[in-house]
Amino acid sequence: MLHRFIMEPKMPMTDSDIVDLLAEQGYAVVPEFIPAGAAAALAGEARQLRDSGAMRRAGVGKGPNNAVNESLRGDFIHWLEPENCSERQLSYLDALEHLRQEVNQGLYLGLFDFEGHFAIYPPGGFYRKHSDRFQIDSRRTLTAILYLNQDWQEADGGKLRLYLDASGEGDFLDIEPRAGTLVTFLSSRFWHEVLPASNERISITGWFRTRGEELL
Q1: What is the pairing mode between strands 76-79 and 56-57?
Q2: From the DSSP assignment, how many helices (H) and strands (E) are in the chain?
Q3: What CA–CA distance (Å, rounded) separates 124 from 197?
Q4: Strands of 172-175's sheet, edge to edge?
Q5: Rg value, the chain, Cα
Q6: If both were cysteines, with which of 26, 29, 52, 168 could 163 make a disulfide (CB 3.0 to 4.6 Å apart)?
Q7: pLDDT digits (tens, 9 = 90+) for 15-74
Q8: Which pLDDT value is given to residue 12?
């Protein structure tokens, strides 16, 4: 059965609202997490990184097992490093830090830090169904995806498909990647995929992590 998320005007969500949704259903979809102007500026910075050659094609897997596989994933990425971030990027990271503290206070997840990157999918790009939790590294605990696509239309495709049961085969939720929308969910619980987009699709994708060690 298809579950479709429909964007509707509503009062802005607080970090506390997000925590309540995570506790209730394991995910939260947050329209207007950042203002439209900030989303447009971040999208411009992502394009500048791409045009300067600072982005690379994303791989699948971790450590020595990481490899480019265009049949599974088609985006280009640039990791955010706080010492090299712009003011706009730092402002977003600061908003995530406030959210991290609120989640830890409300859900006791022990989130320690955040890692994330810009992601640009060219037209036709997709990412097959996958989980964000690595077998050799269990630190990724809460996924956070911020969309940066102005004037996104239904025909543009590129929705995030979030599977709502642990098997990744049953009911799912389709979420449009509209500018300023934050999607966050428990990384180990939800299989998900990026459906093919007919236009360029831009996001900042990342993960709140707990303390721990990689099992390499």
Answers
A1: antiparallel
A2: 3, 12
A3: 5
A4: 2-4, 172-175, 160-163, 192-194, 127-130
A5: 16
A6: 168
A7: 999 999 999 999 999 999 999 999 999 999 999 999 999 999 987 756 555 666 666 888
A8: 81
